[in-house]
Amino acid sequence: MRKMLYIALNDLRVFFREPGSLVAIVLLPTILMLAIGYGIGQTAIAPTQVRVDVLNNDGSALTERLLGQIRAANNALVLCPMDDQDGSCRLDAAQPLTAEAISRRLLDKVTQAALEIPAGFGAALESGQTATLIYRSNNNAASPGIALQAVQAAAQQVGGAQVAAQVGLSVAEAYPPVGFSDDADRSAFRQGVYDRATTLWADNPVRVDYVQSTAPNAPATSSTQAGFGQSVPGMGSMFVMFTVMTALYAILRERRNWTFQRLVMMPIDRRSILAGKILMWFTAGMIEYGIVFGIGLLIGLNLGNDLLALLLVMVSFTLCITALTFTISTLVKTDAQANSTSNLLALSLAPLGGAWWPLEIVPPFMRSIGHISPVAWAMDAYNKLLFEQGTLVTVLPEIGVLLAITAVLFFIAVRRFKYE
Asked: Alpha helix (H) ranges present in 45-92?
């Protein structure tokens, strides 16, 4: 045991004396983690306000009713320029809101959507004719959908009430006992049917309550948690692979420099030599995880309710990558092979397993393929712990899979490992 620890500690000192080691193990993962974390965090949380430019060329009472129902459909909408009470519309006081200005604001993503109400819109509806609204968006994946749903709901309500009023008036005129003394009486009857239809529509007896399922006592997901809950374990896992797979070069170099051969000639059994090498690279991988998760903790990442489970996931993944590395070391013969193999594995297993982006956004068949990578099993466990407030019991399946892969790979590596 003492000889194994001495070998591991000596190799760690050699590793950290290399000028590029600190850059590879601290600087690069930190930069990528921060960039991806802040990027995901800014897009993961839905906006509290959605600006919608309105070009109202009609100005009728029916148009005002339509705009009021759009507001009522979603209180996150800000209709510009009508609702620009606090400058939230970001309008230029010297520049009127024309069709050209709206198009420019959409392209610059100042506003998320635009609604153009043509002249004669209200009169066309009141006469039973077809009226068209023009809706434009800036192709944002979330916000314009919110605005479009509100516009469609309001248009259906206004249009439906108009249809009801027109049908009611037609029936009244066709039914002999009902008569109108003059046009004012006729208009009042039509308006009464319209108001009644609007009231009934507003009091729709069928309602849908939206409830989002979350783990009991789970905190609300902040932008920090949403972004760094993905980037910290993702970048940590990828750079654990890069760090541990450096062993491919080190093993080749030690064979070339006859370091292994001299160790074999000393009074140290081969199992202690191999165990010391394995312990060293496993420790380097755990140091990498410690650095990345430590920075995440300083930024404000919530590490969940079970730190022991989090630590066991790190241990099982790092052991798995260490076993994979020593298995591959029995196959590579040159530095070029070591370089290409380590880069290929790290840069394919990481995105495939969800280190760069959540697997939830990819098709189901890609999720299945992604679980070929040990990264996918680790990321599944991290997601349960960081987002769902999971415990050790929750992540035991993922830990079990990683340890099973580790056992198989270490069995192959130990049997095939050569010291010369």
From this structure: 61-73
Q: For the chain, what percent of residues have pLDDT higher than 70?
A: 75
Task: Report the alpha-carbon distance of residue 289 to residue 322 in Å, rounded.
Answer: 14
Burial 221-258 (b: 16+ CB within 10 A, else e): bbbbbbbbbbbbbbbbbbbbbbbbbbbbebbbebbeee
Mean pLDDT of the chain: 79
Q: CA–CA separation, 121 vs 133, rounded Å?
A: 8
**Residue 207 belongs to some domain of the structure:** no
Inter-CA distances, 258 with 235, 274, 362, Å: 35, 15, 48
Please report which helix (H) or strand (E) contains residue 134, including its range: strand 134-137
Band (pLDDT 50/70/90 cuts) for residue 45 is very low
What is the per-residue pLDDT for 112? 81
164: its two tokens: 């009801």
Judgement on whether residues 412 and 265 belong to the same structural domain of the protein: yes
- 363 and 244 in a single domain? The answer is yes
**Domain, as residue range, for 11:** 2-43+222-416
